[in-house]
Amino acid sequence: MTAPPGPALTIAAAVRAGERTAREVVEEHLAEIEAREATIHAFNLVLADEARAAADAVDAKVAAGIDPGPLAGVPVALKDNLCTRGIPTTCSSRILDGWRPPYDATVVDRLRETGAIVIGKANLDEFAMGSSTENSAFGPTRNPADPTRVPGGSSGGSAAAVAAGFAPLALGSDTGGSIRQPAALCGVVGLKPTYGTVSRYGLVAFASSLDQIGPFARSVADAAALFEVIAGHDPLDSTSIPEAIPPVSETLDRGVDGLRVGVIAELLELGIAPDVASRTRHAAEALARAGAKVDEVSVPAAVYGLSAYYLIAPAEASSNLARFDGMRYGLRVERPTAEETMVATRTAGFGAEVKRRIMLGTYALSAGYYDAYYGKAQRVRTLIVRDFARAYEQFDVLLSPTSPTTAFEIGAKTSDPLTMYLNDVCTIPSNLAGDPAISVPFGVGDDGLPVGVQLLAPALGEPTLFRAAAALEALAPTTEGAEQ
Amino acid sequence: MTAVQHRTGEGLPAGWEMVVGLEVHAELLTATKMFSAAPNVFGAEPNTNIDPTTLGLPGSLPVLNRKAVELAIRLGLALHCDVRPSVFARKNYFYPDMPKDYQISQYDQPINVDGWLELPDGTRIGVERAHLEEDTGKSTHVGASGRLHGADYSLVDYNRAGVPLLEIVSRPDIRDPDQARAYVAELRAILVATGVSDGKMEEGSMRVDANVSVHEIGTPFGTRCEIKNLNSLRSLGRALAYEARRQYEAIAAGETIRQETRHWDDTAGRTTTMRVKEEAEDYRYFPEPDLVPLEPDPAWVEAIRAALPPLPADRRARLAEASGADRASGPVAVVERGLDELVIAAVAAGADPSRALVHAEQNLASEAAAALDPVLFARLVTMETSGELTATQAKTVLAEMVETGGDPVAIATAKGFEALGSDVLEQAVDDAIAANPEAWAKYCAALAGGDDKAARKVSGVFVGAVMKATKGNANGAAVTVLLARKARKAGKAGTASPASGL
Amino acid sequence: MSERITREEVAHVAKLARLELSESELEVFTSQLAKVLDHAADVEALDVGDVPPTAHPYPLRNVFRDDVVGPTLDRDEVLAEAPAADTGMFSVPRILGEEP
Known about the structure:
The complex is a heterotrimer of chains A (484), B (502) and C (100).
Chain A (H helix, E strand, L loop, with lengths): L5 H11 L5 H19 L2 E4 L1 H16 L11 E5 L26 H8 L3 E6 L33 H8 L5 E6 L5 H7 L2 E4 L19 E6 L2 H11 L29 E5 L9 H16 L3 E5 L7 H16 L17 H12 L2 H14 L5 H24 L2 E5 L15 H5 L6 H6 L3 E8 L5 E7 L5 H14 L9
Parallel strand pairs in A: 2-3, 2-4, 7-8, 7-9
Antiparallel strand pairs in A: 1-3, 4-6, 5-6, 5-10, 9-11, 10-11
Helix pairs in contact in A: 1-7, 2-3, 9-11, 9-12
Chain B lengths: L15 E12 L36 E2 H13 L3 E2 L5 E4 L9 E4 L6 E7 L5 E11 L3 E6 L7 E7 L6 E7 L6 H17 L12 E11 L8 E6 L2 H20 L7 E6 L4 E7 L9 E2 L10 H9 L5 H12 L6 H7 L3 H9 L4 H10 L5 H4 L2 H12 L5 H14 L3 H7 L7 H14 L1 H12 L3 H18 L6 H18 L9
Parallel strand pairs in B: 12-13
Antiparallel strand pairs in B: 1-10, 1-11, 3-6, 4-5, 4-15, 6-7, 7-10, 8-9, 11-12, 13-14
Chain C lengths: L6 H10 L6 H17 L1 H5 L18 E2 L9 H6 L4 E2 L2 E5 L7
Antiparallel strand pairs in C: 2-3
């Protein structure tokens, strides 16, 4: 079994070898964007001129015989909550509309060093709060597989950009499933790495103890290549793991013979659509046929994940988003006093979902409620960590659906926040535990829309995770609906 | 301790006392900020010591300064605290000076707890905690009146934002304004001695808030008020005296004291309400998720302890022992100025202890610690005590020694104080004796006959002559001593002639 | 469900969070927050008294930075992004209150 290189690695190989120019690659992708972006709205900002200039610089290096880097000439879409120096970074919020950061996120620095080309800033749910990208102040992103449907979220722009062929690679951020869920709904690969493997410096924080940046790609091998580029210690992030992050690319063709795979029983029950559950079981069966030892496993605390998450994440968010007060950058709604200006700015600048979560988090931290809500949620978090640790005594990786359903209609879930929150039930436990998880496309649902299967591994288990993911990718039924 | 009478005459009546706890914020002497590599320097151009973390820009993250932790531990050990594993927490409140609208501080798990500080008079004041936190920026209010409420707009400088702070919280062990001032002065001395802070209240690198209540002795403590804006030791003393009296008068008038925050107006000499407790913010403390727990390695703590410089209290004790003075008197100022080592070294080099101490206390500033060679200082003291220099001359020579680092003998010569050189003095005395043989005979006879009074009377002739010859630079007492010595020698030799006695 | 959080509590929380809510928003938020908190009741029911809290998913300790000065931002670049600036400083409407 060998993992196909995927479009990103194919481009990089051709550009490095001088067979194609980075400029040609960029022009091709800009043409794709030109053709379909009006429909999809994957980007808040397309960086055509910057991308061309960066491509020319890569081509100049190749011409001069200088190594242009492992991702030379590969266009990458950046979720618009990653800071880019001098380039607007909005978080899809009016409150940051037009803000140009004076610095680059660490991942952006790393990408540039590898010769990758930043092609645009991708749309998201405002401040990454949402599961459909409908909470963007600049309008929703549409699913390339069916533009009447959501791409998932919050990294819906990044997922859609990769699915639509606007860029072979994208970066997103995942706080409760914001990479994996849109990857599943758009039919691409999405990884939430181990907490601490990828620097959060320059990622506009949603929930600091849960946020993690990760790759989108159209193949497992491409995702692995991008992960290897962005992973690694960063002294600017105190929560960055100091040890070397094990490489993953070399594990891709090892197969799953003897690999112990546990199917999380609770996550096949909790409101999972039958077609999604059935695809998940097919995936398990396929792995078993390929030599894996597959069994069901109970992770009881996974059930409580959602509740704990919707106390912890808003609590941290309420504090992280306090700084948007109209004093130093971004929107200001001027009033006679600073105090009134703060209120007016925040009231005008934040959308309803952001306000809702700030309110929920403020409440969970407020005097008299801390112990009952935030404090308790942090203890439940310990239970989740313990339950997963117990499961990993018996299994190398775990398996579940990524999302309870395939892509839903735009507007279908916007009226009831709780229904929307339930989209994250399968993905949230990994964020609470800090463990890595990857969504791999595995066929389509009854509606012909992509289904993603999630693989989970213990902290720093990315090599095993990628090994299983590459196998699953090879075993996936060919899909018609997921690709354009 | 009983009722305190204040200099203003407005103290509390007998049977009442004030109960004071102090919160002191001290900026740490680091090169960079608490959580980022932006410079920590006072007085820079506005908004030049800034980086993404200082400004709390979206996406920025804090990374803890090792030196700030070391300084915190150093102070904790100097205050006899337990140095403990700690975590940082976010204190959430909105204010334009606070770039993230939360302050990273320590809440329920501070680094230093349960210590004490000993005042020069031996009183111990408990230290509840000394924790790390970050400073805020500074706003200037611009407008017609230049005052806060009349201002049209405000300008914010974030240079100070993120400067590392220690908040040192005393127990409510302080009972009067003098003791409060002594506590702050002693804390400042410790901060300076340990190199933790420069302790400059005038630059705001040390700031004091006071919690004050009054009660009738033997009854429970009263409701406390927090007093802000105490920018000098003088303000602190005045504000406490005012506030205690205010509270007492309110109680005496049948009112209840509200728990509130009050602002000290130094010009008006009174405190005014800033915020009552009901308006107090709900800070929504929670563990700072961008930082990891701090668990100082015991070996590191011990290394810091071992490298701790001698503390003011120990230095006062040592100086008191070396100089024979009371530790609560002269040594306080001398240690404060860092001149104790100089005095001790000078005494070791043979200087008269009390004279050396008096010079350090009255005639030397802290620069002298580095500028003055103890051996030369000792020589100067000896020149004075041996009579070669008068007290006034010694002071003059000492000032020049500090300035030039020169030898006191050379300076004295250059100043024309050479008449005081022992050879010159002795020559002048011999000349005076030779010029007044009758008086000399009378003097020797009086001395031999034990008639001190007569001897003293006659000696005036010689002293006057010596003074005239040395243009007043001679030490009268030294002349008298020389005369007596010579008279004794002359008596033993059986002659009244001075020359043969030499 | 309505006893989970009252309208008054929601109004108080909005004040703490520096948000202004209209009457109808107050209404909607109260019912929506009550629903989410109701869902969180399964957490409340758990006995976790002796379980320690997890604040960080990856157990790191003592992460330090050396006290060495690094690069600073260009003031003009930063102030160009400010809503208002004056003489090298951030200009803000007059500050009424004092720092807590």
